[in-house]
Structures are given as structure tokens and as C-alpha cells.
Design goal:
Layout lengths: L7 H7 L2 H9 L17 E5 L5 E4 L3 E2 L7 E2 L8 E6 L6 E6 L5 E6 L9 E4 L4 E5 L3 H4 L6
Antiparallel strand pairs: 1-2, 1-9, 3-4, 4-8, 5-6, 6-7, 7-8
The site of zinc ion has 8 residues, from loops.
Length: 142
């Protein structure tokens, strides 16, 4: 996957202006404006840039912050954190391990068992719902 990352040109063409601004220029969508703030369906949240599975609905919770919030990434190495000292604050920036896209920030005021709050922009994510069809799609037509 790391050898097959989308180019800047491709991302500019494929992503919306907001998705490009957030993921490539470390932007932040306005609170309560993102598509997935109130998303409660079961499924997987993927990186909008490289399609890596990053978060699951199983660890999503309503933090009241106005951004999709998770208390755990899907796998420990799906995302990585970088110290972000911009805007006069020391924060932990969350980026996609696969392509480096900016996702949001992680704070230590989340619920147990991790105590973490991954505060993620909807614009960085692409939600894929789990549907019943997946279980019947084994190519067995008899
Ligand atoms: Zn990615």
C-alpha cells in the first residue's frame, strides 16, 4: 500500500475542497458540520485518501465536541501521532500511518478503558457501512 499512494494531483482531482484542505493542509472542519458527527451505523471508517481502515463504529462515541470521536483506533498502527505545537498549544496530531493524511487530534479526556479521545474530522474519513449482504456474498448461487 505504501508503494501505491495517491499523488497530490490525484488527490486534488478526487477529493472535495474541504477534504483536501483538511487532510493535506492540516485543516479543521467546523464543529457539527461534518458528515459523520452523528453517524451511528455499524461500519468502518477509512482514510479518504488511501482507503486504509482507521476506525470502527464499535469504538465511536458521542463526545459532544462536534467532531466524530473514537476512544481507540481500529488497529494500533493504523494511525500515528505527532506533536503539534501550532496555534499556541501543544497537541497530539493524528495522521494516517499509510499516507500521512491529517486526521485530527487525540486528547486524554476520553472514556475508559483507554481514556483517549481521538477527535477526527469527518472530511478525513470515508464510512463503509456493514451490510447484511456481505454475509451472503460467497458466490454460492445454489
Ligand atoms: Zn491514508
Amino acid at each position: 500500500m505504501k508503494d501505491d499512494l495517491p499523488s497530490d494531483e490525484e488527490l486534488r482531482a478526487r477529493l472535495s475542497e474541504e477534504q483536501y484542505r483538511v487532510t493535506q493542509q492540516k485543516g479543521t472542519e467546523r464543529a457539527f458540520t461534518g458528515a459523520y458527527v452523528d453517524q451511528k451505523a455499524d461500519g468502518t471508517y477509512r482514510c479518504v485518501c488511501c482507503n486504509a481502515a482507521l476506525f470502527s463504529s464499535a469504538q465511536k462515541y458521542d463526545s459532544g465536541s462536534g467532531w466524530p470521536s473514537f476512544w481507540l483506533p481500529l488497529a494500533g498502527d493504523a494511525v500515528k501521532t505527532i506533536v503539534d505545537a501550532s496555534h499556541g498549544m501543544i497537541r497530539q496530531e493524528v495522521v494516517c500511518s499509510g499516507c500521512g493524511a491529517h486526521l485530527g487530534h487525540v486528547f486524554d479526556d476520553g472514556p475508559q478503558p483507554t481514556g483517549l479521545r481521538y477527535c477526527i474530522n469527518s472530511a478525513s474519513l470515508d464510512f463503509a457501512a456493514e451490510t447484511q449482504d456481505n454475509f451472503d456474498d460467497k458466490g454460492d448461487s445454489q
